[in-house]
Amino acid sequence: MRARTTDPPIRSRTGMTSMVRGFSKRAMPGVLCRDAIMGRRGRDMACVVGWDIGGAHLKAARAEHGRIVDAVQVASPLRLGLEALEQAFARAKPKMGRADRHICTMTGELADTFASRTEGVERLAAAAVCALEPERVVLYAGRAGFIAPQAAVRHAEDIASANWHATAALLAKLPGTALLIDMGSTTTDIVPVTAGAIAARGYTDAERLACGELVYTGLVRSFVIAIAERAPVAGSWTPLVAENFANMADVYRLLENLADGVDQMPTADGRPKTLAASRARLARMVGRDVADGQDWTLLARWFAEAQIRTIT
């Protein structure tokens, strides 16, 4: 598959101009112009809630008069089915409150709950509409702009995992050149921005994986075994146990770099999220017990640095 250049302004396969430099006035089926999204009074007069439907979490941020005033993250592992997402919406909605518009992006379409990414886009779009009705919902489709939910299937390739594009598009409005590195719970986005344009080589997950702009490593959920094949222990290299005994949340908890509320998933062994339990889980990755007398914080620091090397 040939990588697409996403330097805005760009055109999707529908001919729609990307929203990075504004909104197209061209009428396209299912594609919404700026007035349809924000109302004729302009963006700063609207109250908007943005939603990001991930495979493990539902995130939301509320903007009033152009400023973010509140945000929330709720665990919603889609591998357990759409019921988890419905419950997450029910928890997050009261905190976010009513809004003139709800704008949704997603990455959860890749979850194995769905037979295909297109099915995932369709069902997640429908779930958002159901959870947020009667208030208006639109979908962020990256290079295709903003899309009415009924057009989700037609624009599935544009909508799928386009949340990285939303962040990069905002950054591109600032002058200068930048490299956006955005680490989430599971993945890391690496997006170059230059001269007010997104300079990414890829757009879809497959394209971005192939060119190194999407790295499947994150702050919380990544398995330690996915970070390295071996680690230095007691003065020698030790191959890691090929089991999910610990994740990166254990590493950053031991380094005291994990903020409260960030790790919302169960631990690998179902035991508590404490320093002692994280030491035990990390020790198990190298075939040891926590009482073996090693410096487990030092080992955690090595894994954290190893993860950075997978990105850089």
Please specify the SSE layout and strand pairing.
Elements: E1 31-32, H1 34-38, E2 47-53, E3 57-64, E4 67-75, H2 82-96, E5 101-106, H3 117-132, E6 137-140, E7 146-147, H4 156-159, H5 163-171, E8 178-183, E9 188-194, E10 197-198, H6 205-210, E11 214-215, E12 230-233, E13 236-239, H7 248-254, H8 275-285, H9 296-311
- In the CATH hierarchy, the third-tier topology of the largest domain is known as Nucleotidyltransferase, domain 5
The radius of gyration computed from the alpha-carbon positions, rounded to a whole number of angstroms, is 21 Å
Distance between the termini: 24 Å
| Estimated structural class | alpha+beta
Beta-strand fraction estimate: 15-25%
Q: What's the order of the H and E elements? A: EHEEEHEHEEHHEEEHEEEHHH
Q: What integer is the average pLDDT?
A: 88
CATH superfamily label of the largest domain: ATPase, nucleotide binding domain
Tell me the strand order in the biggest sheet.
Answer: 1-7-6-5-2-3-4
How would you describe this protein?
This protein has 312 residues and is of the alpha+beta class. It has 2 domains: 19-171, ATPase, nucleotide binding domain (Nucleotidyltransferase, domain 5, 2-Layer Sandwich); 224-311, Nucleotidyltransferase, domain 5 (2-Layer Sandwich), CATH 3.30.420.190. The chain has helices spanning 34-38, 82-96, 117-132, 156-159, 163-171, 205-210, 248-254, 275-285, 296-311; strands at 31-32, 47-53, 57-64, 67-75, 101-106, 137-140, 146-147, 178-183, 188-194, 197-198, 214-215, 230-233, 236-239. The strands form 3 sheets. A 7-stranded mixed β-sheet has the order 1-7-6-5-2-3-4. Strands 8, 9, 10 and 11 form a 4-stranded antiparallel β-sheet that branches. A two-stranded antiparallel sheet has the order 12-13. The chain is globular and about 60 Å long. It starts with 30 loop residues before the first strand and ends with a helix.
